[in-house]
Amino acid sequence: MRLRATPKALALRLDGGESAEDIARLTLPEGLPLEVEVAGPVPQEVVEALLALGRPLTLVPARSHKGLGTLVVSKTLRAGERVEHPGTVVVLGDVNPGAEVVAGGDVIVVGKLRGLAHAGAGGDEERFIFALSLGAKQLRIGPHLAQAPEGEAGEGPELARVVEGRIVVEPWARRRSPPTPPRSA
Question: Is residue 97 within 8 Å of residue 112, measured between CB atoms?
Fold first, then answer.
């Protein structure tokens, strides 16, 4: 739990480990409304304790994970290995079948991606997956899931992203040259 003052309100961040007693012990200056950011699971007793403070209360969404940094993995991931990070993950090597990369941000593979990749694991469908060779059987971006069609593999670097509610894979060269139709993942 963190409390800070802003010009218009008191900003309170709940991480999920707070109790109703923690809320009751807060010493708050008079006159400012309370802005509560919920970043973790909060029991009903904590919500009731917040309401019992008798202040105007606004719930705000948790801040995004954009500031969580980038994890660089300098090796090939073998079957059974899993890398999970709340920010972006860059793999300097291959992601073999049976290996998994799960990122709250983007997934970038400087090598062959043949294992599972999940970008935007917290639900952010604005994220992408990039690989020098994209041969994964399954891709996930935010809440979206795509299975690769049998026998269809792209050549060269590719980018997977969500377009109109589905994952599309397009050649990286498309971003610098005349358009090529994207392939479905």
Answer: no
